[in-house]
Amino acid sequence: MRQYSIPFRGLKEGKHDFEFVADNSFFDQFDSPEIQMGLVRIQVELIKHSQFLELHFSLSGRVTVQCDRCLGPFAMGIAHRATLYVRFGETTHEQSDEILILADSASEVRLEQFIYEYIHLALPYQRIHPEVGGHSGCDPEMMEKLEAHKAHRESDVKDPRWDKLKGLIDKTE
Length: 173
Fold this sequence. Notes:
The chain is of the alpha+beta class.
């Protein structure tokens, strides 16, 4: 995972561009049930200031996720932008989601965990196969099983207790 590091010690102040690729081997390093495989391009613009680093991430690509409806895998396009500020201190730790404190002795910033988290942040809450030709892209066999087990509501059956309660409201008006 060293390939997802940026050595900043020898860099001059100003802008520097880096590019990374997260492929199947990247996702294999993490125990994630959400993303099965993928190919994501990560562009990082590092702005080196005298007292801190500013990193602007731009991610785009495709990942294979599980459909929430039929549980089948499908490829989903993602895109995300994020900013990370790196300050220096005695020890390395995350101060917040956007601020990383690196030890003064550090000479590189490791980005694999941030890239992994940003990819997950790019995923929508609901992941469903896109429609193909006006029809659901979900597995038809699974959709038949879901339909067979679907609870059907009887809207024609009326509860007489509600009629009595409605009668009380009508009397008070």
